[in-house]
Recover the amino acids of this structure.
């Protein structure tokens, strides 16, 4: 598997910003897509964002659309999640992960697979 290491989490006040970084290394970085999901205590994990390797198209959960931006730097084998206008409900452990796009018409959703150890985001 590719190795995935997240960083950039922390505590921030509502309305603030954080940028998460995922460093990827290992046999192959070019997965079909890469993305982020999050998990709140006692809750199931939920998709946050993903970016396709084929055409760099993006997916965002409706709860973060317009506030979060996913991007990638292939030269550095890293991808990022810029999080703005953070809300207390964004508090969760955030994980970067490999994914496969599930295509439905003209849009797609990520099916996540292997993931890193996560980074905690706390918004108060």
């Amino acid at each position: 598997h590719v190795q995935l290491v997240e960083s950039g989490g922390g505590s921030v006040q509502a309305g603030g910003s954080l940028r998460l970084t995922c460093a990827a290394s290992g046999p192959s970085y070019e997965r079909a897509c890469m993305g982020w999901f999050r998990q709140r205590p006692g809750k199931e994990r939920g998709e946050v964002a993903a970016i396709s390797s084929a055409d760099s198209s993006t997916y965002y959960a409706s709860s973060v659309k317009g506030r979060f931006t996913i991007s990638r730097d292939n030269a550095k084998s890293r991808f990022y999640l810029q999080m703005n206008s953070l809300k207390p409900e964004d508090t969760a452990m955030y994980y970067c992960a490999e994914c496969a796009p599930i295509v439905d018409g003209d849009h797609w959703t990520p099916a996540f697979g292997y993931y890193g150890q996560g980074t905690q985001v706390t918004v108060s």
Observations:
- The chain has a mean pLDDT of 92.
